[in-house]
Amino acid sequence: MWAACCPRAGRSSASQRDGLHLVRAAIALGSNLGDRQAMLAGAAAALGGILTDLKLSSAHETGYVGSGGAQPSYLNAAAVGETSLSAQALLDALLAIERQFGRERPYPDAPRTLDLDLILYGMEIHDAPGLVVPHPRFRQRRFVLEPLAEIAADWTDPVTGRTVEELLRVLDS
Asked: How far is it, in rounded angstroms, from Cα 96 to Cα 124?
């Protein structure tokens, strides 16, 4: 289920299918509570209901990165697919999936059963209360860039003009 299955060739960020305007979206998946593998598998199945041409990275075990004190390790992955949903509607759908899997937000950086972040939405840039795309910190997060590079290495960040692969190399240097 977690095999990378997307060719590395670049793709446009928007297309038409059956008269629908489709936008390519990248989602980061993470879990550090409960059966993490089952959480990611369930999230992938749910994402399949809102994204077409879904591609999934492998799962990556990573330590907690944040200021919330000691936490269990995360299992992280990335997903890329196409959607006819607006960026806000897609974010709302991701938050609903998180709630479906028991996500609670008792305090900032709390451990989570499931975390779904909208990383990229085509080549669009959004900066509004509750919706910032590209994700403001994805360029500094190996646990996002490594899985995303498996399935979308040539995707260009609309802010920096660098590909995901280049962003990962910059992080390595």
From this structure: 23
Number of domains the chain contains:
1
Beta pairing class for 60-62 and 131-133: unpaired
Q: Is the pTM of this model over 0.90?
A: no
Token pair in block for residue 39: 């959480």
Show Cβ contacts of residue 21 under 8 Å, excluding neighbours closer than 6 positions.
Answer: 14, 84
Domain holding 136, by residue range, is: 14-172
Active site residues per annotation? 103, 112, 115, 117
pLDDT above 70 (res 60) = yes
What mean pLDDT do residues 67-82 have? 87
Residue 6: pLDDT over 60? no
Q: Give the CA radius of gyration of the chain.
A: 15
pLDDT band at residue 68 using 50, 70 and 90 as cut-offs:
low
Which CATH number is 37's domain given? 3.30.70.560
Q: CA of 139: how far to CAs of 20, 23, 100, 131, 144, in Å?
A: 30, 21, 28, 17, 8
The SS3 of residue 40 is helix
